[in-house]
């Protein structure tokens, strides 16, 4: 072996000896490289939480499951104000919105409270559909409306407009008002002005006696009842003095 080769071999052995610069470099990299990998991993985990970062995912449609319900809430509560600035509250035991494209919520266990000048009116029903944009509740089935002075309207299949405080029914209706009790085929009531209109086979009872008519209009504030369409009134003896 030549002198040059021997010298090169001695330098290589010295470079790899314990305590040499190479040995110190290898020891440092054993610690630094795993730490660097951990830092890079932490950065990727934190990216989705960064405020100004956008993270995109490409998913195979075949492997993505679709939820049947967009939103499901237990004990939902909706609040707002009507056209006169009076507050209303709509509570539901359960609310389900099928899709965000259609602002309609299926609700059950309905309890609505509307603020009126004379006091609050309450509405109770088993189930309905709440239009979030129009703020209307379409009730399918029985519904009970209670007024601030003990008025009771019992009907079914109604549309309740929370903004205008209008109640319209297409099903059989019965009720009790300060002016008397009644039954009819359909109802149209303005809870704000306390005007009630009944149509179709209207029958009822007043302090004067019993009545029947094709239509009836009642103003609950002035206690005025107007019968129209073949109206008949049977006065109880002694009721008029």
TrEMBL record:
TM segment ranges: 31-50
Keyword NADP carried by entry: no
UniProt KW Cell cycle keyword: no
Signal peptide: none
Coiled-coil zones: none
InterPro entries per UniProt: LipoPS_assembly_LptC-rel, LptC
A Pfam short name: LptC
Keywords: Membrane, Transmembrane, Transmembrane helix
NCBIfam families: LptC_YrbK
Name of the protein this chain belongs to: LPS export ABC transporter periplasmic protein LptC
Record organism: Sphingomonas kaistensis
């Amino acid at each position: 072996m030549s002198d040059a080769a021997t010298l090169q071999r001695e330098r290589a052995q010295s470079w790899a000896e314990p305590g040499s610069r190479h040995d110190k470099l290898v020891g440092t990299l054993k610690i630094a490289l795993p730490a660097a990998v951990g830092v890079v991993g932490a950065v990727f985990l934190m990216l989705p939480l960064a405020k100004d970062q956008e993270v995109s995912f490409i998913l195979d449609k075949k492997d993505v499951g679709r939820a049947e319900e967009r939103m499901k809430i237990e004990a939902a509560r909706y609040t707002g104000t009507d056209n006169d600035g009076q507050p209303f509250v709509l509570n539901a035991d359960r609310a389900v919105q099928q899709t965000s494209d259609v602002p309609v919520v299926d609700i059950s266990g309905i309890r609505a409270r509307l603020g009126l000048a004379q006091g609050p009116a309450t509405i109770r029903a088993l189930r309905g559909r709440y239009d979030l944009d129009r703020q209307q509740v379409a009730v399918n089935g029985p519904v009970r409306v209670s007024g601030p002075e003990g008025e009771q309207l019992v009907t079914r299949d109604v549309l309740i407009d929370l903004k205008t405080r209008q109640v319209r029914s297409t099903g059989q209706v019965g009720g009790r008002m300060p002016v008397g009790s009644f039954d009819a085929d359909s109802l149209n009531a303005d809870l704000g002005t306390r005007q009630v209109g009944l149509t179709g086979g209207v029958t009822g009872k007043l302090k004067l006696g019993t009545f029947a008519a094709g239509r009836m209009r009642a103003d609950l504030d002035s206690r005025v009842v107007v019968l129209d369409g073949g109206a008949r009134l049977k006065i109880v003896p002694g009721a008029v003095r």
